[in-house]
Task: structure prediction
Amino acid sequence: MEESTFKHEMAKARTFQGLGERSDYWAGYQRGLRRHYHGDKFGTEGEHRLWLDCINSEDEQRHDRGRGYHAGFYFREYCTQNDNDCSTCSLVNYGRDCQNNPIDAE
Result:
């Protein structure tokens, strides 16, 4: 991911979070995007696993943060649908995204 894309996505997330709609999702998205961009330099592996696991939570707030984290961490620059969440996209086919790339196990 290029720095300009990272900055653009972070600004978008902050704007939407500031509007108050789906603020938990956008908080998770920012964290996931940071992990995607900075890699292992951002957070620990344990924290990363905890954030990934939030998507399985029955608590709505944690679940929304987990969905956002997934979307940011598994960011695909070409995706324009479903907040970059390939697992919910109708174009997914046999574990591959719309560009025929393997979808990371979530």
Notes: Helices lie at 3-18, 23-38, 45-53, 60-73. Residues 13 and 26 are 5 Å apart (CA to CA).
